[in-house]
Amino acid sequence: MKAFFLSVGTAILNHPVPFLITALAVNLIAFCLYGIDKHKARHKRYRISEATLLLFPALGGGIGALLGMTFFRHKTKHVKFLVTVPCLFLFYTAFFVSSLLIALLSSYGT
């Protein structure tokens, strides 16, 4: 397990730009999807599925989804979203911080 965290952390440290671009894109898409779905809900049009709205936080777009939920005041009364989206955000945050810490500590020989 440590080897997996080490490989992820090392990959991020060695190639931060592609990682940051990917993270930004996933979060931006998540944010936009919540806004689009809110617009469609107001105009009684065909909606984006809940599975799709939860897919992007599951792919690492938790902060974008949380910001979209807050900014557009969308899905804030649905327990499924109030629990799942923050949990996914916390999971990815803990995963990447742990990976980076393990990679940094191993590079110092600790």
Overview features:
mainly alpha, about 110 residues, about 80% helix
Description:
The chain is mainly alpha-helical and 110 residues long. 81% of the residues lie in helices and 0% in strands.
Task: Give the topology.
Blueprint: H1 2-14, H2 16-42, H3 50-58, H4 62-72, H5 79-107
Helix pairs in contact: 1-2, 1-5, 2-4, 3-4, 4-5
Structure summarized in a few sentences:
With 110 residues, the chain is mainly alpha-helical. It is 81% helix and 0% strand.
Rg, rounded, reads 17 Å
Helicity level? over 70%
The beta-strand count equals: 0
What percentage of the residues does DSSP assign to strands (E)? under 5%
Total helices: the number is 5
Distance between the termini: 17 Å
Instruction: Calculate the mean pLDDT score and round it.
Output: 93
Structural class, from secondary structure content? mainly alpha
- How would you characterize the largest beta sheet? none
How would you sum up the global shape? elongated
Low-confidence stretches: none
What is the chain-wise order of helices and strands? HHHHH
